[in-house]
Amino acid sequence: MRVSYQEVIQVLEKIFESKGFEAKRAGLCARLFAKASLEGVPSHGLDRVPVFLEMIRKNRVFPSAEPGLLESFGFFERWSGNFGPGPLNAQLAMDRAMEIAKEFGIGMLALQDTNHWMRAGNYGWQAVDAGFIGICFTNTKPNMPAWGGKEPKLGNNPLVIGIPRKKGAIVLDMAMSQFSYGKMNTYLREGKSMPFEAGFDQEGNLTKEPKAVIENELALAIGLWKGAGLSLVLDMLVSVLSGGKATHEIGKTGAEFGLSQVFIALDPKKLGMQSWLDDKLDAIIEDLKSSQAFGAGEIRYPGEKVGQIRSENLKTGIPVDPNVWEKIIKELK
What we know:
Elements: E1 2-3, H1 5-18, H2 23-38, H3 49-57, E2 68-73, E3 76-80, H4 86-104, E4 106-114, H5 121-129, E5 133-138, E6 144-145, E7 152-154, E8 159-163, E9 170-174, H6 181-189, E10 199-200, E11 206-207, H7 210-216, H8 225-242, H9 247-251, E12 259-266, H10 274-289, H11 306-316, E13 318-319, H12 322-330
Parallel strand pairs: 3-4
Antiparallel strand pairs: 1-13, 2-3, 4-12, 5-8, 5-12, 6-7, 8-9, 10-11
Helix pairs in contact: 1-2, 4-5, 6-7
């Protein structure tokens, strides 16, 4: 089914306010969830709203909690998320990183004791829309094995890199697993197998069946051992820089909360790259798109279709799974 963007915002605002969000924060949180589905990422948008509300009910997300500064070192700051709503904490953190970058050229903020930020790409788009290069990454609970391992020890630790460009920004949003758990849950709900191997079953066999991967939390790392290694060092960086929990410590809580994250912003104006940034990016993309493709395949850069998807969904409504929308609407009663 399709629901208008404005209706989605209005419904979510009412629900969040009823859960203890101040009106302005309820509106921003609603827009961040809606934006994910509007731009083609429902697995981390409206699909996640019921999960988010359950985290609030279990006192793992505190609607009124706001992040606070712990330490400042020039271009680098360390903050506590105080277990507040992950999307709001992340939005504030990227805003603050950009503020610092205006002064130093680079701004960096490490955040401890925060919660799931939902669609990671939101914060890459936040940076590029303001004219900044944005980089951010997070850890998660253990949900991926070390290469050769048979139990979840690593997080799938998403990474975002956003680069502003006049003809269309580049925004890479990727987990360290071949598929995010949100995407696997979407396929599971629809009764579909994944298009490629998504992880391992209990016997260690690669499988396309999302149920087996989700139940065992044995997602397949991107690039096999390389993705596993990248996941490990991202976890090390976020926990060391923030002073917060590492993946194995999050795993001891029995739920995914109290995460650690890093946000980096670079100001092209301050760093003297504005005069040639677009020319270089345009040349790289032109070369990329000159590539021959197998069959009728189209060569695309990360984030290329987002504008088109956004525009179409604003006209026709946001696609929402009827069962998900029913769960959301029930929260109004």
